[in-house]
Every structure is written in structure tokens, then in C-alpha cells.
Amino acid sequence: MKAQCLVIKEISKDKTPHIELPPAFSKRDEIELDVGGRLHFAHALFIPNHSAIGANRTQPNPQLSGKHNQDIALYWKNCLGTSDLLDDLIAHADSHPLSGSLALDPGRGKVVAPLVRFDNVNATAESSAILVSLDDLQSFFRRVARDPDFARKIGGVLVEAGNDLQHKLKGFSPAEKFPQEKFAPYQNITHEWNPNGSGIMWNAYNFPVLLLSTNSTSTLKEAAIKNEKHNKAHNVDVAEFDLVMQTTKAGTHNSELCLREKTCLPLGGYSVWSSLPPIDTLSSEPAKSIILAVTSMDSASFFRDKSFGADSPISGLIAMLAAVDALSHIHDLNSFKKQLVFVVFTGESWGYLGSRRFLHELDLQSDSVKGLNSSLIETVLEIGSVGKGYSNGVKTFFAHATGVSLATNETLNALNQALASLKSESLLISTAKSSNPGIPPSSLMMFLNKNSRASGIVLEDFDAMFSNEFYHCHLDDISNINSTSIVAAASLIARSLYILANDVKNSTASDLSVINVNTSLVEELLVCLLSCDPGLSCGLVKNYISPSNTCPSSYVGVLLSDPSSTPYPGQSSDISRFVWNFLADKTSVRKDNAVSNCLQACNSSSDMCIKLETDGKGVCITSTTRYVPAYSTRLRFESGAWSIIPSNSSDPMGMVDPVWTESNWEVIGVRVYTRQDGTYDQLILLGGVALTISSYIAIVVAKTYIAKSLKRD
Amino acid sequence: MTVAAGLGYALIALGPSLSLFISVISKKPFLILTVLSSTLLWLVSLIVLSGFWRAFLPLKSTTWWPYGILVLTSISFQEVLRVFFWKVYKRLEDMLDAFADRLSKPRLLLNDKMQIALAGGFGHAMAHAVFFCISLLTPAFGPATYYAEKCSQIPFFLVSAILALAFVTIHTFSMVIAFNGYAEANKVDQFFVPGIHLLAGTLTLINLAPGGCIIAIPLLYFVAALTLMHCGKMVHRRLVENRGRQDDLE
Lengths: 713, 250
Known about the structure:
The complex is a heterodimer of chains A (713) and B (250). With 713 residues, chain A is α/β, with parallel strands linked by helices. Chain A is built from 18 helices and 26 strands. In chain A, strands 12, 13, 14, 15, 16, 17, 18, 19 and 22 form a 9-stranded mixed β-sheet that branches. A 6-stranded mixed β-sheet of chain A has the order 9-8-7-6-10-26. A 3-stranded antiparallel β-sheet of chain A has the order 1-2-5, with no helix packed on it. Residues 1-107 of chain A have low confidence and may be disordered. Chain B is mainly alpha-helical and 250 residues long. Chain B contains 7 helices and no strands. The longest helix of chain B has 38 residues, at 65-102. Classes of the chains: A alpha/beta (713), B mainly alpha (250). At the A-B interface, strand 26 and helix 18 of A face helix 1 and helix 7 of B.
């Protein structure tokens, strides 16, 4: 049951609102609530089919329960100004829409709760820190949704690391069954692209959920079992959660409020695009039509900092980087009849931020997309998840086309030609089933939404359902994919793009045979981008950037300041900067065999400085590789502050965009220790005081006795 | 375990000492000075011992005898130091008596001498309590508690405070016995004190065994009670003798 918003038309003096259900019920509206004398922007939650608000269009006086504004449930699910407080959100009450849902608890300091295992929660009456294994996580959240009493008892949740091999047997995906369905360009959104999806990631909870490491898991399990055994003992093992989300503390519970009060920051990053060969903007020749190869580099997971996104989407990213590398060795790049442009989006998991902003910037013809003309884009080839195409010795990929058109046929032909040239018996490409409602969730959807006649193909390793059983899960790591699949995809893509760019009906086999993907590059990219050892400290990455973390994380991050400024290392993600440097290096034109560093002449408009972070001097090259900021088209950065632009119909995707933000926070930590009963502490103090006083009395008595015996002289 | 518990543990270890300080030692400035110098001396002794033993630590031994050697050497060193302390005190006593004679003021009485001995013992006790208990108590003021593996029934801080209290008693009153023994050249008292100290030290080795603290603590308090009784008896005897002598003089 999805939550929707409603409009409160008037507030009567006794503080009971009249609620009028708008005719088009799925609209999202803002509500002004005057309760307790304070004006609130709120979005009341309404569950359809609830008996209190029935079929009548106007329902008088459903009570706003609670005496102060603190008891009003504030929700932002699917409403304007969604605030994504990733770990500390308010839960919604399923049973009654406006009644005493959970009290807002602004700025809870440290929350201390005894450790309890999920199986034994019934036995406790107080707020607990619940230890849940990954297998039980989905049933745990189902119970939270069903049972508000249970939800009230939760002080915090600690998820066990678990045995990974065990978990690989069943899938786990906290995303929805049709990820980001509202952005689909077609009507049929009941198709389950992600059948394993439970949707738990997109619900609101008012307790923190943390993932434990393997060591911590065993320690905490022992502690919880100890608590169960010694139930009546005067000491108990507790978990202390030290995380205060500034948006909860300040009471700014949706994105619009929190951006205004500066208690949160919007999600966003920097997409990268690069053209092969570099575009000469000063050239007098007419601009070539553009073949756009697109992929994304960000993923999401239930746990903010632990998301590798191996199959979705990093496998696609690696395939593209390997394809660029393969194509860069061709000598006659300038003889291409069409311009190849590679784009790597970020923010796609959070409302297709990268692709939407890229298309917007193309419309505005801004500096970040200088050299690209959107009317010249002939077709789009998107590389989706390509890491799981290898099974039973056969590599299979599926081409999902936007429809039947000249451009899509050309691309399909190119793919088939590339397939034939690879002369491999274990490699197959099929077109997707016609029973699919359309293209799978992908950036290409945004191109279609912008221009319904756009044509493109998404290359995936699945047909009607994701083959990735761990979509948007922290377990989608390097063991979930296969490098053979990625190498095969990269070869297909490189050769297809060559065929498309050359626009020749039958490329000779000899032309294509020089385009080969470097398998060791793929292996290296895999361990650099999808593992923690060596992770981003591997030689390949360190050749280009100084990474801020060793463990790569594909979470998009937040935009710290003006998005139009060039990102510097503190502001942008490591993967983003690596991709920029890598693409710039591979698509560059060698400058006269002289390797010059940036401190020497690197001034002309087509020159760029790469590898600057590694030694401060960098290398000057000629390339067209640019950052494009990726953030919601509903956001505007003006005079140092973010604000939300009201939705309007010229930006239909913006209308369904929740505008995700991340709350500011100072520290996120949890400690576990043994805590003594309060009465025990008082007893100890009493004992100490009693001891002191009685010893004083004894000493005084002894003194008097000695003095008396001396006086007897 | 919160401030209340931390304060409670500190009072358990040092409450009686506080009472003693307020009622006896703070009345005479000279006693305060004695306490300070005694504390300093015994803290230095502990530092010297730790300096020496640093080379061999951590012991990481599952058997008890390395700890036994540790205890033996430390106690022997301290007892030697006690004799040295006595000798310094004797010189001081002679100087004070000479000074008093010059001013035609009365010499040190028995009462004074016993109080100085008490102050000396009190200093020794303070050094022990601070070194072995108070320095460990800081975490007790926080929200958590800790149970050592080998003594899982009682919180670590409580064990530490109780043991410190026992040793405070032992050290305070053994100095009185010891000074008296050296003054009277009473062999029993002279060997009683090192014996008690060694016994107490050895009893703490029982704590190394799992659940040993349940046995060690009562035994240690028995030793402390023994010291207290012996001291009381000795003081009583000396006072009676003294009274007798006064009567004879008159």
C-alpha cells in the first residue's frame, strides 16, 4: 500500500482539519497545518481504504490526535520534498492515518538499549537494540510495518554480517520490484524487473540500522545470548547508538525545509563525458552526428557506505572503460564518419539525476556540454549490467531496444556484425522479449521521456527479469559477477561502436580484428573498483588520482557547494575523478611525442591537465573530457544556498522526482558495553558513605579512649 | 557506571582513610607533612619497582610463580625501605628532641611518636590505594561496568576497591607496629610486619585462579583484622606501661 498525500483545506478553531480529497488523488500537495500555534509544512499520510476516510469526497473532522505538533506524523514518502534521512526516519502508522503515530523525537542524543536477538524480542517490554541476521531482515521489516507496538520497542537494529556463502543461495534486494517505476516512459509499471525486491530500502523508519562486521557479529551474538540467559541479573549488555541526524533535531522533515534551514545537502555528483576523438570546436567542418555510449557509476544499498554495485552498474562501467581503451589504439580515429561520445552518469539510482541534468544542460547549451549538440545525437547505446552474462560456458546478452527504427536496426546490425567478427561459439546476443513492457530501468528512459522518438538500445545480461539477485544490495560485490562476461561485453561494444562510427555496411574482418579488449585491464579494474584490497590504492587508480578511501563506494554522495564549479578532490567521489582522468587519457591525442606537464604550456582551449593529484604537476594532453554536475532538475543553487524549484509540467520527470537529500550528521557510531542496574550504583554509593561514616565514628571512639587513658595520668 | 558508582568505589577504598585524616592527621600539621613525605617515598618505591620489572613485562604467564617472584621481590624491597624510613625518622626524632630541649619545650611523647608512625603508615597506604585502585577508577565514572573473567561475580572496580581498603588498613597499622618494634627492639613486632605484608601479598595470588577472589578477599580481611588487633593490643600495652612509668616517676 503506497502512501499518498492529501490537502487540508481549512483548519477550524478547534484544530481539527477538514480534509478534502482532491479529484486526481495521486497529486502531491503541500499542507499547512496550524497546530499548537506553530505553522508547519507537513504532508499528512493517508492510507486509502481506511474506514475513517471513505468514499466520500469530503470528510469532516478526522481528528488530528496528539496535543502538540510533536505527535503529528510527518511523512514525506512520495511527497514533495522527500527527505532521505538514511538511517533515522519516522515510521509510518499503518493502522490509522493521522492518529498518534510515533512522536517526533527531535535530536535524540545517545540511545542506550539492551541487546536482544530478533527471535526473542517478544520477551522484552522495553526499548531494545535488536540483532537481526540478514536472512531475517525482510521478515523483520515486514513485522515493523505491520505492528506499531513492535516498532515502538526498537531502539536500534544491528544486522549481522553473516556467512556470505550462505547468503549467495537466496537473493536479497531491498529495492523495489520495479526500481524507480515512476520514471518509466511507458504505462505498464506492474512488470517486475526485480522480483527479489522487497522495497524495504524506501520505507521510513525511526531507528538506526547498522551493518556489523564479522568480528562484531560474534561478539554481539554472545552478548545477546548472555542477556537472555541472565534475564533477571543486575547487569545487562547494552548498545549505545550515538548518531543524531540534524534534520530530526531541527525538526526539518522534508527536503524543502531542510535545504532552507541548511540541515541537509542534496544528493548529487559529477558525471563525466568524453569524446573519441577529441572534438575540435574551432574547426570549420560541419559537426558530425553523434553516437552516444552511456553507462552509470553509482549504485545504492540499504547501508550507505557499503555498496559496491558490482553487477549494477559497475560491470557496465568497466565494460565501457575497456571498450574505450580498445578503441583508443585505432590509428585513423579522425576518419570516423560519426562522433563517438562516452558518457558516465552518476546519481541514477536516486531519480536519474545524472541523465536528467545532462539532458537539461544540453538544452541550455551550457559550458559543461560544449561541443555537443543534442539534435545531432543519432542513437544511444546504453551499457547496463553485463557482469552476469556468463553461465554454463555461454555468454548471452540481450539488446533492449526503444522500438523499431532505422537507428535501432543499425545498432542491432552493428552488434551482430561485431558478434560475427568475434568468431566465438559461446557468445550470443538476442533481442529482448516482446512481452517486456519496454526498456528496463535505465538512463535511456530519460532520453525517451525527453523525446519520445529517441532511439537507443540497452545492452543487458538479462531479458525479462534482472539476473542480479542482489540488486542494490551490499552483497552485489565482485563474487557476484564474472570477468569473462565483462570482457565479452566490452569486445562487443567496442566493435559495434566502431562499426556505427564508420557507418560502413560491411566492415572487413581485418579492420575489426585489431579492436581487442585488454583482459588484464578488465581484471585490474575489477579489483580496483570492486574490492577493498587493493581497492582504490591499486596502481591503476593511483596512476591518475589520490583516492580518499581505499574501499570504493558507489554511493553518489552529496553536493557540497556550487555545482557549476569544477570539482576538486574533496568535493567529488574517487570513482568520478578516476573515470574523468582515465577517459581523458585514453581519448587524448598525443602531443608531438613530448610529454609536458601542466606547469609548462597547457593553455589552449583544447588542453587539459590530467594526473594532477598524483604529483602536483600532471600531464598536459589534448582531449575533450568534461564533468557535468549531476543533481535534480528541481534544485537550484543560488547565493550559497539550495532551494527547490516548484514542479511544472515542462519538466515531467521533475514532477515525480522526490528530490532526495541527506541530513547533516556529526558522528555515527555504536558502542556496546555492560551496564549496571541503577539501584546497584546507588547501593555502592550508600555503602561507601556508610563505611566512611562508621569508620569516622570508630576512630573518634578510639581517640577518646586513648585520650582518656592518657588523662588518667 | 555513572558518577554515583565511581564515587561509591572511591569511598569504599578511601572512605576510612578520609575519616582518619580528618579526625587525627589534619589536627597536627607535622602529621600532614609526614603523610606527604611518606606517600612520596612509597610512590617512588613503586616506580622503582615498576621500572625494574618493566623489562620483564608483560609476564603473559599461565603459571603463578612469575607473579609470585614479582610479589616477593617487591615486598622485600619495600620492607628494606621501611627500615630505611625508620632510620630517617630516628634521626629526625633526635633532631626534634634536641630542638625541643633548646627551647625548653617538652620532648616527643609516646602519643606523638605513635601518631607519627600512624601518619607514616597512612602515607604508605595512600600510595598503595592511589597506585592500585584510584588510577583504575576513571572508567567507573562512565556508563559501563566491567567484569574480569576470573572474578565474574563481582565487578572489577568493586574488587579493586575492596582489596585497596584491606591493604590500606594493613599498611597504616603495620607502620605503627613496625616503629614500635624498632623502638623497643622487639623481635616479634619486627618480624610480624614483613610477615603480614608478605602474607597479604601472597594471598592476592589466589585471585589469579578462576573464582579465586571469593576466597582471597575474606582471607585478606582476616589478615587486616589481625593487624588491627595486634596494633590495638600493642598500643594498649604501651599506654598501660607508660602510665605505669608516669606513676613511678611521680
